[in-house]
Design a protein that fits this description.
This protein has 75 residues and is mainly beta. It contains 1 helix and 3 strands.
């Protein structure tokens, strides 16, 4: 049996407040073949405008198996 294909999705996620309302801001940066590719992109983006004002821990890497259903419940 072959090993399932895995992709890595890089996000930049942080909490934000505007007019007294708190919410989570999410930017999906991209889809990558390896965790190292994600870390390389973080290295190039962390000092860029819009990202440098937040800790590097706001970059999040999520691993997904291709072909797997992740939504399990109805609305």
């Amino acid at each position: 049996m072959s090993k399932p294909k895995v992709i890595f999705v890089l996000y930049h996620i942080y909490e934000r407040t505007f007019d007294g309302i708190d919410w989570r801001e999410r930017k999906r940066i991209g889809f990558f073949n390896t965790r190292k590719e994600c870390k390389d992109v973080i290295g190039t983006m962390k000092d860029s405008k819009g990202f440098r004002d937040h800790p590097v821990t706001c970059f999040k890497i999520f691993e997904y198996e291709v072909g797997k259903t992740y939504w399990r419940d109805e609305f």
